[in-house]
Write a structure and sequence with these properties.
Length: 169
């Protein structure tokens, strides 16, 4: 499975790492692994990965850089996949939502995760004690704002970035 991700600034990664320390027993991401998934990109056929970059670029032609903002800490009490709860940084970005919608037109949305169900977020940790997750979600944080001027195609199977797309596309 591939995905189109938004790289997050170091301030967001540091915040996620700091919050994860308050969630013993939960599986957290290591520093440098924090991203914001814009859209999962399912591929079909043996040469599909080779065409993926071109399809993404075509779908996003003319897309300008856009603003994103981490506004708080929240959780998915019951995750669609994987361990629960999922503590995450909530992200507000009309531009990101617009990109996601464009990509849902070019690539089928994954049920219960994308389209109307899409919730922009940066995962802090999965699993662990629900009480601890709730306590972390009660924390107030200073918002972190940045301009998204790059997107990255990521290969989950190989755990590596495949390509990047500078904005404006």
């Amino acid at each position: 499975m591939y995905s189109l991700n938004v790289p997050v600034p170091s301030a967001v990664a540091c915040l996620a790492t700091d919050l994860a320390r308050e969630l013993p027993g939960a599986r957290s991401r290591r520093r440098g692994e924090h991203t914001l998934v814009c859209k999962r990109l399912d591929t079909d056929g043996p040469d599909a990965a080779g065409r993926l970059d071109a399809r993404v670029r075509e779908a996003l032609a003319g897309t300008p850089p856009f603003a994103a903002r981490v506004t708080g800490v929240d959780q998915f009490e019951t995750a669609v996949t994987g361990p629960s709860p999922v503590v995450h940084l909530a992200v507000e970005s009309p531009g990101l939502r617009a990109v996601h919608e464009r990509l849902c037109e070019a690539f089928d949305p994954i049920e219960d995760l994308e389209g109307e169900a899409y919730v922009p977020h940066v995962t802090v940790a999965r699993g662990g004690a629900p009480e601890r997750a709730a306590a972390v979600c009660d924390r107030e944080i200073d918002p972190v704002e940045w301009t998204v001027d790059e997107l990255q195609v990521y290969d989950a199977e190989r755990d590596q970035r495949v390509s990047r797309l500078s904005l404006p596309a």
